[in-house]
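Notes continue from the previous slide.

Worked example: a multi-chain complex. Inputs as given:
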Amino acid sequence: MHELYAPIREELSEVERMIRHELRSRHAGVDELVRYGCLLGGKRLRPALLLLAGRAFDRVTRDHLVLAAVVELIHTATLIHDDVLDEASTRRHLATVNVRWDTKSSVLLGDYLFTHAIFLAAQLPSNVPCRVLSRATRIVCEGELRQKSLRGDFTLHEDQYIEIIGAKTAELFACGCELGALFAGAPQASVDRMALYGRNLGVAFQIVDDVLDLNGDEQRVGKSLGTDLEQQKATLPLIHVLQAANAGDRREVLEIARRNGNHRLEALAPFFHRYDAFAYSYAVARRFADEAEQQLDDIPPSSAREALQKLTEFVISRSL
Amino acid sequence: MHELYAPIREELSEVERMIRHELRSRHAGVDELVRYGCLLGGKRLRPALLLLAGRAFDRVTRDHLVLAAVVELIHTATLIHDDVLDEASTRRHLATVNVRWDTKSSVLLGDYLFTHAIFLAAQLPSNVPCRVLSRATRIVCEGELRQKSLRGDFTLHEDQYIEIIGAKTAELFACGCELGALFAGAPQASVDRMALYGRNLGVAFQIVDDVLDLNGDEQRVGKSLGTDLEQQKATLPLIHVLQAANAGDRREVLEIARRNGNHRLEALAPFFHRYDAFAYSYAVARRFADEAEQQLDDIPPSSAREALQKLTEFVISRSL
């Protein structure tokens, strides 16, 4: 993937330095925790999108760098709180904060990273970033709350699932792309299309993430997998099986999904296979990725545009 | 206390309506949780301070109302996350979110309220509120992180304790007072003094809160008490005993404080009594309240100024 970042490599290194510079505390106990937290991000996909969106419109400013750091900090904050929600123990091959410290530290660290992100955004002269970012994060939280309140509800329909991941994941993708184009001075219609690119890409990304949670290799992905089933979260492969299955299979699948214990994944594997659940999910993800790609139509050719295009491939083919 | 709110009674009702109006969701499960969350605030002290600070400089605008709702939402978010940190079960005579739902719901609800607060603040034309609020909340989080990392550390000195509560509690008081004066068009020196009023008032308030946690009547206060000792959090009364006690008593107090189980409070009571720990703490709180009061010196007499003055009495004499 990292070759896709070539058009913005230097800027991304600068963003990395900014994040490390910001996340310091003069109190040793706090400092250790905060530095650890910033290791847990990973692909730096959201800041890369923001910078590429700017570069696609020929302009990457100092504000872009700040905003790229901001979206990554917000993303990291949500990861750390997610690991509490999912009771996950590994992230990016490292112990999660809730395991290495405890749930309380995770709560506070997530809060700290988020408030710090908003603090950075608020240093910019315009209040548009705070407006766009706080709107997006509010939608992210509402999506997470909705998903939480629907745990154990296996009547969830595919449309509702897409709505939820559109909020909890795709909104931050959309907001990064929007800010990237906006701060490059792109016309409003182009800003809107970049946001739509990000939103569709985010949905495709999350569908694949949910497939990997059921079907991925924990060593390779580097984080706890199988947590969705443990948390009784219905994601696309399971939703598809429940829609497509005959009555007998459906009953059995529901019984397994609601069962206690840790062997649900093995017990469900034959059903995922029988109903082509992973292939089905990848096909849906591909539709969203294609929709994302179409939004790039009127951007003049450049290495940044090409990278944005290739990212619509990457989100489907990625195995981590 | 509510008679102190007389100069801003109508505005405070409007703020209450705004909060209720904002905290709605079209998703039933989310809506129930969010509405419950907004019942958990209490005295509405922070919005009252913001409005009184405006009124003291003769001007309460629409922006004041929005900002008052914002500080209350931020405060409520911190309460909900605090209840996770303290494993508290009761708040304002109601079950806490972590008890009525679970820790995960508390994490998400706190996040939702906080992001919603920033979203509201970002709707104002100026980006000063986002700047001031995000700076304050970042300091609040750092204070909480620091307190968390010092749990079980009974060598904590009084100065460090004051620094920590100055961050985790007083910063939001200061920020509310600052914004109130600022948006009333007060001169910078007066804005700074109002912030200093808030900061000192907040420290006094938290010292008394910590005394009530050890010495209050749970029925009357309406929230879980004794959580500081359970969480091995050294607050002023205990810090004082450890400073003032002879070597034998000190050893015994440390042994009790570090002991497991729920009878630490009863076992420590004789020592709090012997070393006048509560009276000592109230005297320190009074010093900060007096310091707060002095900041009001150059404000022309008005019912708002009088209310701000009386609040410096109230924070000491309050029993809830």
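Summary box: Chain A has a mean pLDDT of 92. The two ends of chain A are 11 Å apart (CA to CA).
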